């Protein structure tokens, strides 16, 4: 990925011209960092990185082109994430998704009593309480690919059958075909979070319990 020198700046979701301040939040709650690259000609890319939005633009862009493209890319990224959040739905849809995954990969043996999104899980992607058969997923997963959400659901569903992380537990999780890929995705996110936390003097990565 092409990464040149950058600077952080605020960009309103409405497309207002960016202004100064390295740590100002963008309209969607993220700091926007613009990185110019001499290797780029016309292509512009935007993505999330360590709690900020990074926009890659050609070095030859004028200030007006930068403002226009940054506003467009931030809006497009926000729209894409909102569409993904809507496709995942609320707690009822999450419950239905869990039941379908249990039927598809666990012979329907894992039967949760409740499955819901929560906003207070900052150190875990998901958690399960076998005693009352409840499963909770961090709302931060809403911005991630659906196969990653499904992996975390399967992981927590297996805890209804196997409370620990023994060999049988992982054998059951592996029935989900994209388990390894999803685990790699989350590990990458966790490593990036750990690097950012270390730089800020904060604590370490997330986990699936």
Overview of this protein structure:
The chain is α/β, with parallel strands linked by helices and 209 residues long. It has two domains: 6-86, no CATH class; 89-208, Metalloproteases ("zincins"), catalytic domain (Zincin-like). 40% of the residues lie in helices and 20% in strands. The chain contains five helices and eight strands; from the N terminus they run ββββααβββαααβ. It has a four-stranded mixed β-sheet, with helices on one face. Strands 5-7-6-8 form a four-stranded mixed β-sheet. A hairpin with a 2-residue loop joins strand 3 (45-49) and strand 4. The protein is elongated. Mean pLDDT is 79; it is low at 1-27 and 199-203.
List keywords for this structure.
single chain; 209 residues; alpha/beta; Zincin-like; 2 domains; 4-stranded mixed β-sheet; elongated
Per-chain topology:
Layout: E1 6-9, E2 31-37, E3 45-49, E4 52-58, H1 63-88, H2 91-105, E5 114-118, E6 124-129, E7 134-138, H3 146-159, H4 167-173, H5 179-200, E8 207-208
Parallel strand pairs: 2-4, 5-7, 6-8
Antiparallel strand pairs: 1-2, 3-4, 6-7
């Amino acid at each position: 990925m092409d990464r040149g020198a950058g600077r952080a700046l605020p960009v309103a979701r409405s497309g207002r011209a960016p202004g100064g301040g390295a740590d100002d939040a963008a309209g969607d709650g993220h700091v926007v960092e613009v990185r110019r690259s001499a290797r780029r000609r016309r292509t512009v890319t935007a993505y999330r990185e360590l709690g900020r939005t990074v926009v890659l633009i050609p070095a030859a862009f004028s200030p007006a082109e930068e403002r226009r493209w940054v506003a467009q890319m931030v809006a497009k990224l926000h729209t894409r994430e909102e569409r993904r959040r809507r496709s995942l739905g609320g707690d009822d849809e999450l419950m239905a998704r869990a039941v379908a995954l249990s039927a598809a990969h666990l012979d329907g043996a894992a039967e949760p009593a409740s499955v819901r999104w929560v906003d207070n899980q900052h150190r875990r992607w998901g958690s399960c309480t076998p005693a009352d058969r409840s499963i909770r997923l961090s709302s931060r997963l809403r911005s991630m690919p659906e196969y990653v959400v499904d992996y975390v659901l399967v992981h927590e569903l297996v805890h209804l059958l196997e409370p620990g992380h023994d060999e049988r537990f992982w054998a059951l999780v592996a029935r989900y075909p994209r388990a390894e890929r999803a685990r790699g995705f989350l590990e990458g996110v966790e490593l990036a979070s750990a690097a950012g936390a270390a730089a800020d003097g904060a604590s370490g990565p997330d986990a699936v319990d």
